[in-house]
Design a protein that fits this description.
Elements (H helix, E strand, L loop, with lengths): L1 H45 L4 H6 L12 H8 L3 H32 L5 H12 L7 H10 L6 H24 L5 H8 L4 H12 L1 H17 L2 H6 L8 H4 L11 H33 L4
Length: 290
């Protein structure tokens, strides 16, 4: 009887220690989450201040006067609405083009037997290692000859080319895990290669495609260097470059800059909150047999 009571007591003590460990772990993770989200909260309060309050008070103080007009001013007078639409158009177009071309290439590399498939894959992986800044001058000269400077097509092509290697790397790892029996059965039934790709293989890759869409969207939405180099007119600028409109030679409207940053962060933040798990899944899937 004493042995049974002692065993139950030890089990109870272990459960108590385990429960305390979970509590401490959650407190630690909550503290890390607070440090991670605090810059966004600070930026939100920053966007609701004027220059006098930003420089005249503590940076951690709440706004004395909540300047909601900063958001209205940047959206109407600062041409941010046009920049926002440009960012949406360029991001969506480049993402769709990248994912579609990467799917074509990956299908050809993993599902078709031809002599140069390994070499083509290696060339794409070499392209992944090229720094973005080293391509600016040759790309500028190339687009200048094609009369594509100050044209959104140059940005879309640059984004597509830059994102293709990473997208292909993720897709190759996932394609190598897909069973070939379904496609072989479709061939026996007389399916053409186009029907196999669009009606069988592509639908099976929907989970990994959503991952690549998110990764590409985050890069395209936040990218600055290509737009700042190839685009000069306000008509085609995106949000990341349009922020410079509020930086003057003698005066900078910091509240408007904060409001613009918040507007640019919100769409990508919402997408990341709801779809962040797929990014981890996609990276893991791409590393299985990549």
């Amino acid at each position: 009887m004493a042995t049974v009571i002692g065993t139950k007591q030890k089990q109870h003590d272990r459960n108590g220690i385990r429960r305390l460990g979970f509590i401490l772990l959650y407190l630690f993770l909550g503290l890390i989450a607070l440090f991670q989200i605090y810059p966004l909260i600070w930026l939100f309060f920053f966007s609701l201040k004027g220059n006098a309050e930003i420089f005249g008070r503590s940076p951690f103080a709440l706004p004395e006067e909540w300047r909601w007009d900063n958001y209205l001013r940047v959206w109407t007078e600062g041409n941010i609405n046009q920049y926002f639409l440009n960012s949406v158009f360029i991001t969506v177009t480049a993402v769709l083009l990248t994912v579609l071309l990467a799917s074509f290439v990956t299908f050809a590399i993993t599902r078709m037997n031809w002599k140069l498939n390994k070499l083509v894959l290696m060339l794409f992986m070499i392209g992944y290692m090229i720094p973005i800044h080293s391509t600016l001058v040759p790309l500028f000269q190339f687009f200048l000859r094609l009369d594509l400077i100050d044209n959104p097509i140059s940005i879309i092509l640059a984004y597509t080319a830059y994102n293709l290697p990473l997208t292909i790397m993720i897709l190759v790892g996932f394609y190598n895990t897909l069973p070939r029996e379904i496609e072989e059965a479709a061939i026996m039934d007389g399916c053409s290669i186009h029907r196999i790709f669009f009606q069988i293989t592509l639908p099976m890759t929907t989970p990994i495609l959503s991952t690549t869409v998110i990764i590409n969207m985050i890069f395209n939405w936040n990218e600055f260097v290509f737009v700042n180099t190839f685009i000069s007119s306000d008509r085609y600028k995106t949000l990341t470059v349009g922020i410079q409109n509020f930086i003057g030679q003698y005066l900078t409207d910091w509240g408007a800059i904060g409001a613009t940053l918040m507007i640019s962060i919100i769409p990508i933040l919402i997408a990341f909150i709801f779809l962040s798990n797929r990014i981890v899944e996609g990276i893991a899937a791409g590393s299985v047999k990549g």
